[in-house]
Amino acid sequence: MATPYKVLFDGVISKLRSTGIPNITEDEFDEILLDYVRPACVRFRACKQDLSKRNDTLATFEIELLDEEIDS
To answer: Can you give the pTM of this predicted structure?
Structure first.
């Protein structure tokens, strides 16, 4: 089962909102965060899954990420 990037983005957005970041739309956040997916995957060495199995066009991982991978 796939994991949409949106699952990751929602976690980041909720953490940023609690810090008082200016109110921008969720779509604007998603657009900004999309640029961080590839670099984050490359640097996330503790993940046991192959994060290169993703589709940036569909904004989804082709694998199901575990909760601890999503929240890391």
So the answer is: 0.74
Q: Is residue 31 pLDDT above 90, yes or no? A: no
Structural domain boundaries enclosing 15? 3-70
Domain count, the chain: 1
| C-alpha R_g of the chain | 12
Q: Find how far residue 55's CA is from the centre of its chain.
A: 12
At 55, list the tokens.
Answer: 């589709």
For residue 59, what are the contacts with CB-CB under 8 A and spacing of at least 6? Answer: 4, 5, 6, 34
* Confidence bin at 54 (pLDDT 50/70/90): very high
